[in-house]
Amino acid sequence: MTINTDLLNKATAFIWHEADLLDHKEYQEWLSLWDKNGLYIVPTDNNETDYENTLNLALDDADMRRMRVARLDSGESVSASSVSGTVRMVSRVRILEETADYVVVRCAMTLNELRHGNLVSYPADLEYRLKPTDDGFVIDRKVVKLMHADGFLRTVSFIF
Amino acid sequence: MSELIALKNISQKAADMVEEGRVHKALYSDPEIFEEELDKVFQNTWVFIGHESEVPEAGSFKTAFVGRHPVILSRDRKMNLHVLLNRCRHRGATVCEGRKGKTKAFTCPYHGWGYGLDGGLRAIPKVEEYEGVLDKSDLPLESLRHESYQGLVFATFKDDIEPLEDFLGGAKKWIDLFVKQGGGYPLKVLGEHRFNFPGNWKIQLENTTDAYHFPIIHKSFISSLDNATADIFDFLDGDGFVEDLGHGHSVMVMIPDLVDLEADLDQPIPERFEDLAQALRDEGQDEEQVKRLVRAAHGTGFNLNLFPNVSCSMAFFRVLRPVSAEVTEIQHVAIGGDGAPAPFNRKRMRLHEHFQGPMGFGTPDDGEAWERVQKGSMAGKDGWILVNRGMGNLHTSADGNVAGAVCSETGMRGAYQKYKQMMAAEGEK
Question: What positions does the domain Rieske occupy (chain B) (predicted)?
């Protein structure tokens, strides 16, 4: 088995950059990482593939991403104000597919959230479809498969 | 509070904690009262467990709870529904796991006892050791009495309870209106969101008949809407109302224009539904049907609270389950039309995702408020929760019910009076 470590490094660097932006609530810059037709998806059923015709926890196109960020940044959401912070670890990065148009990457994430003094942990598989650009990538699709997606979650006032 | 604690009888204590315009804060956290509620409320009335569309075919099942009891809603080969306690009659293991699915039988994983979709005990491995000891026909999965109205399935532990339709009473008219949001198609469950919050179930019960909170806690949601839609949600000064429907049920009409989704079909299509209208036209729907589906896609302009555990809440079912005095699980069940054009159901799901569920633009802020109610209720030795808003401005509705302004707490008072009545009754052990 040959691993394209150059591509793996590039993809990993991009995903780490995104993770850092999200943990530090640099949401406007996060928005700029996306292709305009990209979709941010958090399914309720991790075996589902037809996201548009099923109910998801989130299925954000560009408009919804912009509104989600506006809500979190607005200062109007009391739950967003109560999130002390998130720290996410991303690892186990693997390139699943490489074509002329896309790189499909799967990795593991554990996100820890502190809210009202309580730590909550969210283990998840992340699946990215990244579109190569002249200076890196843009996100065409990001699917966050929470391990307990079909369980009773706590409410979420941050971005996975 | 000291006087209340002095009362030896727990049930009397809880009932005394409900006055006309206020309830004692200990009702949110006292574990003894919670146990009493499971007996006297949740085991003693009709409890919503799901919608018939969740078990569409022979062999379909879903799991649910009646209070603390895990149950299975199943559909047998003759298409009859059954509500079965999820407990093997041998050593007590659950015989069915997962949210929903299809099966031919319920088989206990421990020793292999097998039950039919109707709960009948069909198979016992190594049965010869039971010869002369037991008769299979004596040991089906225990079944609960259940009845449906407009596809909404309720179950009860109380065998001699009044028929479901009598229990629903004045709420039936509103359920009939609620199901019109299938857009001319039978209502169908499209999926659900699940979350919990560290607080008492009655905090959720209150919330779905509380219009007062909407523009305050949900300001960040309203800001995310276009102006025309934001205006629709600016309903506190409108002509809405809250009506006490009896039996603890109530309806809160926030948007009177959207009470009957099959009326006023000539209205222009709002901007935020133009994409849906075009998608429906592209599918060959005529303009009349486009308008009908677009109007249905809004959902209804009211919340119908059914005591004790479900609200038909504008465009979805909100189901609560009491886990402990200080933990409640909630399901936000998305609905659409069975056989309706795909763009219609897609739009319904996107609207649901926008506000509902753990990642919606509304629910997290509700959850934050409820968590704070629970936390704040621990402050002080004594204290009361006010539910007296609008008590000085009541009228009699066209249906002869007590009604108040849209942001009155009329529905909460109705629910708490039913609660008081049930908690004051002698427990059935």
Answer: 46-155
